[in-house]
Amino acid sequence: MALFASLLAILLALVAALADAVPGPGARAHSCVFGYNNDFYVLGGVGTLANGTIFMKTPYPFTGAEESLNWTSLPDPPWQTIPWVNSQPTFSCSNNRDGKVFLFGNAVGFAYYDPASNAWSTTQPTFKPSVSMSNLMNQSGVASAVWPDGYTISIFVSGPQMYLELDSQNMTMDGVSVPGFKEDYGSFCMDVVKTTPPLPVVCGGSTSMGYSDTCWQLGLGNLSTPFAALPEAQDACSLIAFETHFVVWPGFLSTYYSAGFPPKPINPDMYIFDMNNRSNGWGTIPNVQGSAYLPIYDYIGATVMPNTSTAVLFGGQDIFSTSYSSVIYQFNLSTNLWVTPFPSPNLGPPPGTSESGPPQKKSHVGAISASKSSGPRAPQTIDPKVYRSPQVPYGEWYAQQQSEQA
C-alpha cells in the first residue's frame, strides 16, 4: 500500500508539472526576438499556432535540449494577428535598457510593455511636428533597432518612407523623410552599428516591381544616404550589428527565380561589412556547416544577447512558403562559429567539431569581388512574368511558371 501511495504521489506530481508547463512559441516566422536580463524573448509573428500575438520568454543561457526550454507566457500585445509574413500591416519591436518593449506598426501604430506593471500601454509619445501616429500605422514595411545607449530607438517605415527616432526615456519621437528610398518597400532588415556616432543601417527589401540590393545609413537631418550594395538583391533578410560591423543572414534572393527548382545555392554565405573600413567592401562568412545549420529560411528572428558576442536566431519560413521553423541557432560573432547546445543534438555535431572534441578553428572570412561592393545600385527589377508576389507561396508560384511554360 505504501508503495502504491508513493507511485500515485509521483504520478500526480508529474501530471501537475505537465499541466503547468507552458508550450513554446512553436514554429513561426517574422517574430520579434530580443534578450533582456538573462532571458530570451519571442514576440508575435506568423506560424503554426493559431495565436499570432504570443509574447514569451525563456531563461538564457540555454540549457538542455531545445524541446525542454522553460517558457513563460507574458501578456499579449494589443494588435491584430498578421495574416501573412509580409502582408500589411507589418510590425517591429525593440526593447530599452529598462526592459520596456516598444511595438511599432500594425494597426495599432505604437504600444509598449512595462515589466514593472506586467502590462501593455497604448499611451502615445510626444511627436515632433514632422511626425505623427499615422507614420507608424498600417505600414508596408517597418523595422526598428535600439542604440548602444539603450534608450534611443531607430525606426524606419516605407509608406511614406521616413526615418524616426524614439527617445524611450522621455517618450518623444522625431523623424525625417527619406525620399530616395523606394516607397512601400517591405521586408527589409535593420540594426544600429556601434560606431562613433552609432549608425542605423537598413538593407534590402522588395515591392511588386522587384528587389533591392541597397544598404542605407539613416539619421535625422540630411544624414540618410545609400552607402553599399548587397552581393545580391533580396528581401526577408536578418541583419545583426556587432561592434563596428554588421552581418547579414540572407533572405529570399532575387536569383532564386532564375535558379530553377529547388533554388540554388542551397546554403548561401553570410555577408559581413565593416562600417569603419568601407573601402574593403563585403566579406563572407562561408557557409560550410551544411543544411542542418543554416537552411534556406527567411523572416528569421535574430538578436545579439546582452553582454555577449552571441547571436540567437529563431524560427523562419522556408523559401517555398510551405512550412515554418521552431529551431533555435546560436552564432558567435567574434569567432564566426556556431555555438552549442543549439542546434539540437539530432542535427549532428556543430561545424568544426567532433562528437566529443572542442570546436576547431573555422576558415577565415573571405572577400567578395570588388565588382559586388563598388557602391549602391538601383533596385533590381524583375520581369513581371517571372515575379512572385511576396503573398504567393514559392511552390504555388513555381507550379504556375511550369504550367505557363508547358
UniProtKB/TrEMBL annotation:
Disordered as annotated region, ranges: 344-406
Domain of life: Eukaryota
Record bears the keyword Signal: yes
Protein name, per record: Uncharacterized protein
Keywords for the protein's UniProt record, in alphabetical order: Signal
InterPro entries: Gal_Oxase/kelch_b-propeller, Kelch-typ_b-propeller
Signal sequence segment: 1-21
